[in-house]
Amino acid sequence: MTFVQPLKIGDFVCPSNLVLAPMAGITDTPFRILCLKGGAGLVCAEMVSASALKYDNAKSVKMLQVAKEEHPVSMQVFGGDAQSIALACKRAQEQGADIIDINAGCPVKKVNKAGAGCVLMKTPEKIAEILQAAVKSVKIPVTLKTRVSLNRQENLAPLLTKIAQDNGAAAITLHARAAVDIHNGEPNIKFLESACCVAKIPVIANGGVLNAQDAKAMFEAGAQAVMIGRGAIGNPFIFKEIAQTLNGAQFTPVGNTRKAEIFLALVEENVKFYGEKVGISRSKKTVGYWLSGFNNAAAVREKFVRCENLADAKEILSLVIKEKQ
Ligand SMILES: Cc1cc2nc3c(=O)[nH]c(=O)nc-3n(C[C@H](O)[C@H](O)[C@H](O)COP(=O)(O)O)c2cc1C
Fold first, then answer.
1. pLDDT score of 1 more than 90
2. Are residues 224 and 276 both part of a single domain?
3. Are residues 237 and 277 in the same domain?
4. Is 187 close to ligand 1, i.e. is its CB under 6 Å away?
5. Number of domains composing the chain
6. pLDDT tens per residue, range 255-285
7. Residues 30 and 65 in one domain
């Protein structure tokens, strides 16, 4: 059985059904480009607040930027108000998004207080209203990202899948964990499977995928695509690794020295994209993932998180590269 294949979302065809998850603070332009090179068939941007966009918040507006080398890209918006969401969708389309995703799964308090994220799962009629407004406002496909349950006990996945497809969503991403579990614990494959059974739109399965075996379990549950979050941080080649492994080809793992070289190139891209201060601070967030399994990883990471500019960062990583890990 061929699991990894192109993915059709509405009229839009992604070259593969292995998708980079939206991750705030992580999935910006430099990292999205890296994941496309690593074989992702679609990359998702960090969630952007619809109400912040309404007030032209400069940081949020920058988050909608799409570089020419980063397609296919999905821009994710969050909010509790259908009109603001519709406006945000229009802006994301104008900026060059291929797909727009609506967040109905985020458990962060600040997001939930605004009536957005996973609290929407309590009021499926609100999700319906938001989706209808979003779909009406743009020509590109709109998708929904939510969770299989709020509390581990009650399976909401089939209901939310029906709400999504009946209100114009072109696909649904199901994070197969309960909202109370945030990002921890095993994905609930049974809940996922129950949604795949009723779905007339593609189900993109998410949660805990770190290798080909994990992805296979999601495909076998009936998912048409698999979304990878933390498994791609420090390992953007995971998409190729899963595709080649599941399609019976040999995958040669990327060695640590090469990983350090790629991380250094990413740090340089971050500095180009954000300027030195923010670029270095963004790079610090993921250094632990990149250096995992290296000799003296803890000591190098300690040094890296204290560096203040690109020259320092280069010096630290060049030493690691010279050491031939
Ligand atoms: C640091 C971080 C930031 C995240 N930001 C978002 C976000 O902006 N939008 C969203 O829908 N999910 C967000 N998520 C959830 C991920 O998209 C994904 O559902 C979750 O990490 C589970 O997938 P994984 O087990 O493969 O990491 C975030 C997760 C992490 C760890």
1. no
2. no
3. no
4. no
5. 2
6. 999 999 999 999 999 999 999 999 999 999 9
7. yes
